[in-house]
Specification:
mainly alpha, two-stranded antiparallel ribbon, 2 strands, 58% helix, globular
Length: 65
């Protein structure tokens, strides 16, 4: 699964630690999602979408596996 979280986070001037705190996850989790090594759970995906004010489909797109 590909995503644009790194871009969205950078646009806001947030570090991975900042985003992790807002989502109540570890910085390592944010890094793993951004690099495509971990697909978030559906509740976490909704939380991310709400935080950025976008739909899940605008943040996460199917990619090559």
């Amino acid at each position: 699964m590909n995503n644009v979280i790194r871009e969205l986070r950078s646009e806001r001037g947030w570090s991975q630690a900042d985003l992790a705190q807002k989502l109540d996850v570890s910085r390592q989790t944010v890094n793993a999602i951004e690099t495509g090594k971990y697909d978030p759970s559906l509740p976490l995906a909704f939380k991310i979408a709400r935080l950025f004010g976008l739909s899940i489909e605008m943040i996460f797109v199917p990619g090559e596996q």
